[in-house]
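Q: what sequence does this backbone want?
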């Protein structure tokens, strides 16, 4: 009987993990499983094991599981509908990509100050890529319990991990959990079942996300802005604000679609009329309710026009 080899990535004592924002990194090549969050309900227990509508793809410099590569990491941010997931590309060195991505979820420090993680810190003991699943080994039994998180937070934290690891491997593989070498039935109090799956994008992801320009980067007076969104009639509204918060430039971009998931959007920004200096680039969803609804979802990046 022929066995499919497993690839186990363990977190070794003293391993170096360097996590940093990958500036100027484009969207994943094929609308990976990174999606918007509707200002609707918090994911239910059933949602946690619902297949997402599309498969993810790995990052723009992917070589499978290599070191020193870009990884998409999902963090939590505020939206009018409550906490949802935003994606930030990160480069890992010194460890393989699955390990680096998992560590970024549990203890990473996002570059964007608007993002955060719900995880309590620490690292998984191991991450294993198998033919039909991604397997994570928790270091302590307490990781299996809900702990200080409420139910909604625990479910979203689990989705942070699922979306991140699936984005790294480029497949919608279920995530299985082990403790002390044995299958575990829960993670942060969330039922694992046959494996944790990605909740549909519109239930957990923020409706707009900026990929470029990246937080804290310098841009020329003509630059490309892009990301992913699900906005009314596929319209993504953007603006640039100066250090006082005054809008000094504005426009809109057209995404490739909307309603069922997040779609790529892209626009060229002509900032040649602005003096060099620090600005905030803002992208938001269109608000057809004219202020009567919960309001638009927003993502921001601090940039320097050179």
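A:
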């Amino acid at each position: 009987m022929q066995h499919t080899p497993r690839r186990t990535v363990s977190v070794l004592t003293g391993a170096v993990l360097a996590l940093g924002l990958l500036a100027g990194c484009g969207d994943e090549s094929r609308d990976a499983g990174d999606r918007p969050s509707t200002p609707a309900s918090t994911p239910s227990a059933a949602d946690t094991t619902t297949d997402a509508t599309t498969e993810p793809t790995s990052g723009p410099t992917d070589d499978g599981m290599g070191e020193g590569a870009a990884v998409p990491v999902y963090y939590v941010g505020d939206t009018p509908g409550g906490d949802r997931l935003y994606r930030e590309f990160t480069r890992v060195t010194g460890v393989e990509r699955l390990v680096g991505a998992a560590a970024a979820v549990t203890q990473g420090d996002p570059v964007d100050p608007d993002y955060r993680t719900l995880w309590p810190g620490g690292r998984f003991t191991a991450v294993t890529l198998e033919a039909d699943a991604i397997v994570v080994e928790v270091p302590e039994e307490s990781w299996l319990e809900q702990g200080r998180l409420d139910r909604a937070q625990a479910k979203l934290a689990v989705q942070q991990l699922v979306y991140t690891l699936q984005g790294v491997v480029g497949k919608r593989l279920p995530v299985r959990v082990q403790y002390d070498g044995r299958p575990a039935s829960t993670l942060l109090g969330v039922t694992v079942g046959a494996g944790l799956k990605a909740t549909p994008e519109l239930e957990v992801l923020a409706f707009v996300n900026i990929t470029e320009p990246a937080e804290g980067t310098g841009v020329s007076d003509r630059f490309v802005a892009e990301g992913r969104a699900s906005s009314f009639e596929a319209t993504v509204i953007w603006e640039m604000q100066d250090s006082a918060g005054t809008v000094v430039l504005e426009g809109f971009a057209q995404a490739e679609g909307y309603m069922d998931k997040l779609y790529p959007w892209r626009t060229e920004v002509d900032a040649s009329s602005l003096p060099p200096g620090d600005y905030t680039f803002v992208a938001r969803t269109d608000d057809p309710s004219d202020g009567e609804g919960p309001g638009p979802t927003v993502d921001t990046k601090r940039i320097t026009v050179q």
